[in-house]
Amino acid sequence: MFIELTDHLRCPADHAESFRVLITDEMTGRTVHRGVLGCPVCRREYRIRQGVVHFMEEKEPVEPMPVVGRVDAGAIAAFLGLEGPGGYVALVGDAAGFAAGLSRLWPGIHLVAVNPPWNSTPTDSLSVLEAPRLPVKTRALRGVVLGAPYGQRPPWPDEAVQSVLPGLRAVGRGPVPEVAEFELLGEAEGWWVGRRVGR
């Protein structure tokens, strides 16, 4: 896990967002290989093992769904419309499959794979999280791509929209989110793209 990502993470327990306490046991450069993330609100502790943050003990078995249409990393980059380096983009579920292509297109943006359906290995440009809900603070991301099966599972679509900075975009497979702060920009072939509005 990229150490600076700590500031953007939240405990997945049902309480107000708070800061995280990180205790590192093993690091290389800015990457944490082993350690603990603690929550000062509920006192839960989450282990980091082999660079992966485990917000839940048992990983849910998730199979990637067949690709719909011709969506690839280039299309995802166009949907999100990001320019310039910096910040974080979350890739949830089978959307983690776009990580390699997006890393090449966005060399200065850190990617966060949440519940990838295969064993993704953390790198300098990719952090990996396993969680029962999106463990990212409100208004923390430059973009989010909600892949299968999470695009069909409440509350993931709503949380995806809420995690994005105002004016920036979320992309997903499945039903269009019904959130007051969401403006749909387009949908086709099972995918939608929209913008977070408001402050």
Strand order of the largest sheet: 1-2-3-4-7-6-5-8-9-11-10
Structural class: mainly beta
- Low-confidence stretches at least 5 residues in length (pLDDT < 50)? none
The CATH homologous superfamily of the largest domain is named Vaccinia Virus protein VP39
Q: Helix count?
A: 3
Query: How can the largest sheet be summarized?
Result: 11 strands, mixed
Question: Strand portion, in percent?
Answer: 25-35%
Describe this entry's structure for a reader:
- The protein is mostly beta strands and 199 residues long.
- The chain folds into two domains: 3-51, no CATH class; 73-196, Vaccinia Virus protein VP39 (Rossmann fold).
- It has three helices and eleven strands; from the N terminus they run ββββαβαβββαβββ.
- It has helices at 73-80, 99-105, 156-162; strands at 21-28, 31-38, 45-49, 52-54, 88-92, 110-114, 126-130, 141-146, 164-173, 182-188, 191-196.
- It has an eleven-stranded mixed sheet, with helices on both faces.
- Strand 3 and strand 4 form a beta hairpin.
- Helix 1 packs across helix 2.
- The two termini are 29 Å apart.
